Amino acid sequence: MAGLYALAGAYWAFKMYYISGEGFYSILDSEQLIDNAQAFFLLALVVLVLALSTAIFLSWKRARSKGEQLWNPVARRLVVNLAIPLVTGGFFVLIIFSKGLVGLIAPVTLIFYGLALFNAGKFTFEEVKYFGIIEIILGLLALYFIGYGLLFWSIGFGFLHIVYGLYMHFKYER
Asked: Number of folded domains in the chain?
């Protein structure tokens, strides 16, 4: 579901910033940049809240059906090890945005998300580490091809989540 939310958000961002003729990276007026960025951050926040709430709900439902507790010591360690790189990356994004380096936002989010997944992989399936490495590589590619951040973001947070989710479902749930 996270991948579908990300693709919907990326499509909406594409329609807002690219179809209108004003690419997000080409806006020169700082007031217009801030106005557009606020809408972009709101969109990203909505996608994040939808993805997290769906993940928590489905995890809670699965744990309940198996008679397990969702919030146990392993889950707490997982959340801490996932949260530290994610929160750090979030602050890093806010800092680079405040400096006007908007072209770095997509690569940085992919890189820090990949680092968080790799770090959290110690407490879950081994595949999570590989997923994290792929996200890091994708973020580095997005850093090199700086004008294509939304495309790389769509691949990393959209398509890769869908592929990963399907892989994990068929490997562990069937």
From this structure: 1
